[in-house]
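Record 1 of the preview.
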Amino acid sequence: MIATVVDTTALWETVVASFVAGIGVTLIYSIAIFGAARFAEAGRDGRNAQAVVYGALTLLAALAFVAVIVVGLIVMTAK
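->
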């Protein structure tokens, strides 16, 4: 009998999941920052239609960011 010390499949799944989650959260937050910056710029320049679109993008990305954080907390605290 050979004992398995390290479950390489579970380890690989963890590495891939953490990489995807890290890139995904960073991308979502970057989109929120991009939208906020463009929202402010369009608002200053009087381009109200663009400001509304960028404001909606910012709100959507911020909500997605919060949702990802909440899901992460739920996954970490679940048994």
